[in-house]
């Protein structure tokens, strides 16, 4: 089988050739015109960033993509689906306000924002799927209604999948709230009683009322837990831990089935783009962005999200880790940075399962633009 081409531009520029021009050539070589046709309502699937986070893709970079889509005669819009956890993006009103505060509007990014699953995260379409875990998928309605999709991802570390890239942005990011809940359903954290002070922050934020307080510690009801991991993000003592077992492997497979269903439904109408800039150790859903674990690398694009994520991981791992970052091990060039961050997570499972489902292939040829 011929390796999938993954197109790559680094961040070197000159007076005669700036990054905007290089990005335009990248999109052209990667086949944007093959995916986007005149008159298309084209969804640019983004992550607008949580309040306090600064690692999300800057609106100016998004504007270059918007302009390229519009130049093809399509009608681009910026979109994301509401979050499962409570926060600034859990309903369309708050989500829109957060997007605007981060500069995603017609002036900064060049296109309007549409929250894909509606006011409360319930606007969804059911997509039939013959998988090991799902027979149907709940996808945000605006994503399904779009004629074409440009899946734009900030490539970074992630505590449940090792890294988050094109596959995660597609599979988790395009799911409705119900779809997100189905994917997270087997992830139930635990509380280390020796660290917990019983402050109650986790109980106050839990959307499923799955946490109760005893005299000295919090207790999580695994049967009621929906696996949103919000309790992990708010604990000031780092007392709430993920149960590192088959749960993360199962979570990755569920996420990939959602990505596979959408990729099939929009076959030939999706282009995937990964930004390997400010590669933070954790998801942009956190209300902070830690120091980058490696130096900025560049921008990659491909119609094959599996090859794209594999190439992105390889490029990150080829770097020397940034001193003083959260990456305390595997810092040498060529060492696995994501295993250094999350040694319990087999991040290759998402790529392996996506390949097995026919989403794409892990073999790629890196084409420098």
Description:
This protein is an alpha/beta fold. The chain folds into 2 domains: 4-185 and 246-368, 3-Layer(aba) Sandwich (Rossmann fold); 190-241, Alpha-Beta Plaits (2-Layer Sandwich). The chain has 13 helices and 16 strands. The chain has helices spanning 19-30, 32-35, 59-71, 92-101, 141-145, 166-171, 177-184, 201-205, 230-234, 246-265, 305-317, 337-341, 348-356, and strands spanning 4-10, 41-45, 75-80, 113-115, 124-128, 136-140, 148-154, 156-158, 162-164, 190-191, 211-213, 218-220, 240-241, 270-276, 298-302, 364-368. The strands form 5 sheets. Strands 4-3-2-7-14-15-1-16 form an 8-stranded mixed β-sheet, sandwiched between helices. Strands 5-6 form a two-stranded antiparallel ribbon. A hairpin with a 4-residue loop joins strand 11 and strand 12 (218-220).
Count of DSSP helices?
13
**Unreliably modeled segments:** none
Query: Which outline best applies?
Result: globular
Q: For the record, give the distance between the C-alpha atoms at the N and C termini, rounded to a whole number.
A: 23 Å
- The domain count comes to 2
Structure summarized in a few sentences:
With 369 residues, the protein is α/β, with parallel strands linked by helices.
Keywords:
369 residues; alpha/beta; Rossmann fold; Alpha-Beta Plaits; 2 domains; eight-stranded mixed β-sheet; two-stranded antiparallel sheet; 13 helices; 16 strands
Set out the fold topology.
Blueprint: E1 4-10, H1 19-30, H2 32-35, E2 41-45, H3 59-71, E3 75-80, H4 92-101, E4 113-115, E5 124-128, E6 136-140, H5 141-145, E7 148-154, E8 156-158, E9 162-164, H6 166-171, H7 177-184, E10 190-191, H8 201-205, E11 211-213, E12 218-220, H9 230-234, E13 240-241, H10 246-265, E14 270-276, E15 298-302, H11 305-317, H12 337-341, H13 348-356, E16 364-368
Parallel strand pairs: 1-16, 2-3, 2-7, 3-4, 7-14
Antiparallel strand pairs: 1-15, 5-6, 8-9, 10-13, 11-12, 14-15
Helix pairs in contact: 1-3, 7-10, 10-13
């Amino acid at each position: 089988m011929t390796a999938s081409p993954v197109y790559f531009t680094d961040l070197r520029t000159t007076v005669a050739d700036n990054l905007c021009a290089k990005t335009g050539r990248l999109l052209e070589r990667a086949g944007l015109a093959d995916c986007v046709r005149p008159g298309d309502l084209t969804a640019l699937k983004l992550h607008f960033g949580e309040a306090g986070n600064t690692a999300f893709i800057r609106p100016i970079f998004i504007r270059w993509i918007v302009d390229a889509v519009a130049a093809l005669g399509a009608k681009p819009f910026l979109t994301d689906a509401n979050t499962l956890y409570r926060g600034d993006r859990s309903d369309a009103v708050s989500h829109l306000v957060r997007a605007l505060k981060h500069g995603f509007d017609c002036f900064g990014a060049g296109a309007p924002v549409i929250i894909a699953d509606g006011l409360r995260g319930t606007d969804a379409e059911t997509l039939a799927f013959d998988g090991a875990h799902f027979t149907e998928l709940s996808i945000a309605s605006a994503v399904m209604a779009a004629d074409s999709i440009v899946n734009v991802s900030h490539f970074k570390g992630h505590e449940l999948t090792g890294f988050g890239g094109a596959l995660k942005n597609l599979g988790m990011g395009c799911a409705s709230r119900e779809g997100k809940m189905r994917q997270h359903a087997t992830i139930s954290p635990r509380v280390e009683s020796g660290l917990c002070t019983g402050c109650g922050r986790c109980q106050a934020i839990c959307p499923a009322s799955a946490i109760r307080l005893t005299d000295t510690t919090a207790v999580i009801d695994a049967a009621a837990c929906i696996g949103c991991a919000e309790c992990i993000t708010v604990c000031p003592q780092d007392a709430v831990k993920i149960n590192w077992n088959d749960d993360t492997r199962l979570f990755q497979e569920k996420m990939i089935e959602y990505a596979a269903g959408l990729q099939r439904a929009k076959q030939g109408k999706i282009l995937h783009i990964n930004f390997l800039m400010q590669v933070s150790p954790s998801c942009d859903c956190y209300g902070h962005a830690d120091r980058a674990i490696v130096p900025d690398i560049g921008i990659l694009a491909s119609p094959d999200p599996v090859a794209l994520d594999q190439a992105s991981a390889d490029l990150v791992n080829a770097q020397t880790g940034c001193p003083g970052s959260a990456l305390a091990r595997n810092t040498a060039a060529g060492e696995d940075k994501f295993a250094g961050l999350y040694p319990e997570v087999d991040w290759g499972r998402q790529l392996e399962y996506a390949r097995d489902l026919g989403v794409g292939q892990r073999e790629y040829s890196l084409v420098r633009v």
